[in-house]
């Protein structure tokens, strides 16, 4: 309980100044040249110390906002140890150290990188490059986040870092994710919420969430106009479908934005409890959020993202 209290006390502080970060030379021989340690993270990297400081600051701010927002759902055993991060300066080194296959490997368990279950292809906001690899991934088997500066297709490394860091926070702070995709935790929620929370920022003492990820919004609007949106009952309650990965990311992000922006916000925590318990069916979803008319709910959802800019 003491560690949890310390985590919550730290998280309650405003993100006004850079967090204390100790950066030292790596002791073990290998790809990593530096090790940065902050209040919550241990980051091994071959990037420059200035970049490492920036990475640690971004992660601490994201963690602080997460813990403040969901503190009532965090248990003491979920705040025991430093969160592990491997941050690579080059794409070549990232790919050389990527752990393929097995639970939590790229495309393996929920919380891995974009791509179909068991695959390693890229998703809409983090597409695979010519090498076929992801831009980053969280490995729940080792509880380690892997990503780097060089991103395929010119993607934003900061967004990828925070997307994967959110997977890590869901798993290590709320016990959500880490199992077979679509079995113990919903794919649409894991990927959608990771993109949603990645846009969260601090403005002084205020947490501001709900930033718009334009690429995902454009995809939702394009699918809606072309009548290719996946119906919510299928997206949420259907069996995992690799052909729906685009929808898991874009519609998942839009749905999380909808749930956190309006009348369902107060009931969002009830759905988190369902996710934690592995109860991720359509009936679990509607029950936790008090949805009485699925058709009306879907129309409200579509109207919500169509109004976003």
Structural class: alpha/beta
What is the molecular shape? Answer: globular
N→C terminal distance: 43 Å
CATH superfamily of the largest domain: Collagenase ColT, N-terminal domain
Judging by the overall fold, what is the CATH architecture of the largest domain? 3-Layer(aba) Sandwich
Strand order of the largest sheet: 1-2-3-4-6-5
Total DSSP helices? 11
Helical percent range?
40-55%
* CATH fold-level label of the largest domain: Glutaredoxin
Summarize model confidence as the mean pLDDT. Answer: 86
* Estimated share of beta-strand residues: 5-15%
Strand elements, count: 8
Instruction: Please identify the top-level CATH class of the largest domain.
Output: Alpha Beta
The domain tally reads 2
Main β sheet profile: 6 strands, mixed
Molecular structure report:
The relative contact order is 0.10. Strands 1-2-3-4-6-5 form a 6-stranded mixed β-sheet. It has a two-stranded antiparallel ribbon with strand order 7-8. It has 11 helices and 8 strands. It is 43% helix and 11% strand. The radius of gyration is 19 Å and the shape is globular. It has 2 domains: 18-100 and 135-175, Glutaredoxin; 213-308, no CATH class. It is an alpha/beta fold. It starts with a helix and ends with a helix. The chain has helices at 2-11, 49-69, 91-96, 157-174, 187-197, 214-225, 232-237, 245-261, 268-276, 282-289, 294-307, and strands at 22-25, 34-37, 41-45, 83-88, 136-139, 144-148, 201-203, 206-208. A hairpin with a 3-residue loop joins strand 2 and strand 3.
């Amino acid at each position: 309980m003491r560690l949890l209290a310390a985590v919550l006390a730290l998280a309650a502080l405003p993100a006004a100044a850079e967090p204390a970060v100790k950066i030292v030379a790596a002791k073990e021989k290998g790809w990593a040249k530096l090790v940065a340690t902050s209040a919550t993270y241990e980051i091994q990297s071959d990037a420059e110390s200035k970049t490492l400081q920036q990475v640690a600051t971004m992660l601490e701010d994201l963690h602080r906002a997460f813990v403040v927002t969901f503190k009532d759902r965090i248990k003491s055993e979920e705040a025991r140890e430093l969160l592990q991060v491997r941050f690579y300066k080059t794409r070549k080194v990232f790919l050389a150290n990527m752990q393929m296959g097995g639970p939590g490997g790229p495309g393996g368990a929920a919380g891995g990188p974009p791509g179909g279950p068991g695959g390693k292809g890229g998703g809409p906001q983090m597409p695979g490059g010519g090498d076929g690899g992801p831009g980053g991934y969280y490995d729940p088997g080792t509880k380690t986040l892997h990503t780097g500066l060089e991103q395929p297709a010119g993607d934003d490394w900061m967004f990828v870092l925070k997307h994967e860091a959110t997977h890590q926070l869901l798993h290590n702070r709320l016990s959500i994710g880490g199992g077979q995709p679509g079995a113990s935790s919903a794919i649409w929620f894991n990927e959608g919420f990771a993109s949603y929370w990645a846009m969260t920022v601090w403005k002084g003492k205020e947490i501001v969430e709900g930033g718009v990820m334009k690429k995902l919004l454009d995809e939702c609007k394009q699918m809606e106009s072309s009548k290719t949106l996946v119906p919510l009952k299928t997206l949420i309650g259907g069996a995992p479908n690799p052909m729906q990965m685009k929808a898991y990311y874009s519609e998942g992000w839009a749905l999380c934005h909808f749930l956190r922006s309006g009348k369902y916000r107060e009931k969002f925590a009830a759905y988190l409890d369902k996710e934690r318990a592995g109860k991720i069916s359509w009936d679990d979803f509607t029950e936790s959020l008090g949805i009485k008319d699925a058709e009306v709910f879907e129309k409200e959802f579509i109207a919500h993202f169509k109004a976003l800019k």
